[in-house]
Design a protein that fits this description.
It contains five helices and six strands, in the order βααβαββααββ. It has about 170 residues and is α+β, with helices and mostly antiparallel strands.
Length: about 170
């Protein structure tokens, strides 16, 4: 029995739009970042890949809320992106590399993309039996709390990867 379910979509980008991945945006803004760096081989070894750089991009005056966005309480793209990172922390998703976020662009405007590719979260590489054992274990070293402390993000702070339990 599978404990989780999800959806598969061929695309969330309308035909007249284009998805511009984070690596392209960062490469155009910061000379030290090369948009051609391959994920996953080099994708987690970019010391310049820092949340503070992405946050500057999210404050771009031309960037709008995601297409068809309906939440009236969160009113700017930066806050929404912070929500994406918070979701990653909550589910221990180590996969918010430079090609797992971006902007949707057309002549009509520039929009933050919706969040996508969360498949690496929630202990996806653990068998369901092991997940249940972790939830029930009395051994602190085997419990979920200790397991999630090992997950690292691709974001750097100085010379270290941030962990998903400490990225915000």
């Amino acid at each position: 029995m599978n404990l989780l379910s999800g959806i598969i979509s061929t695309t969330f980008v309308p035909k007249e739009y284009r998805l511009v991945h984070g690596n392209e945006l960062l490469a155009k803004t910061y000379k030290k970042i090369d948009e051609n760096i391959e994920y996953p081989i080099d994708g987690y070894k970019i010391r310049e890949y820092q949340l503070k750089l992405i946050m500057v991009l999210m404050k771009d005056k031309f960037l709008k809320l995601p297409l068809n966005y309906t939440n009236i309480e969160v009113k700017n793209p930066l806050d929404i992106f912070i929500g994406y990172v918070m979701l990653d922390c909550l589910i221990s998703n180590p996969d918010r590399h430079h090609e797992n976020w971006g902007w949707i662009v057309s002549s009509k405007g520039v929009y933050l993309s919706p969040t996508y590719d969360h498949a690496s979260g929630l202990g996806c590489r653990e068998h369901d039996d092991i997940k249940l054992k972790r939830l029930q274990s009395k051994d602190k070293g085997f419990q979920v709390e200790n397991f999630i402390k090992k997950a690292k993000t691709p974001f750097y702070n100085r010379d270290k990867n941030l962990r998903t339990d400490r990225c915000i």
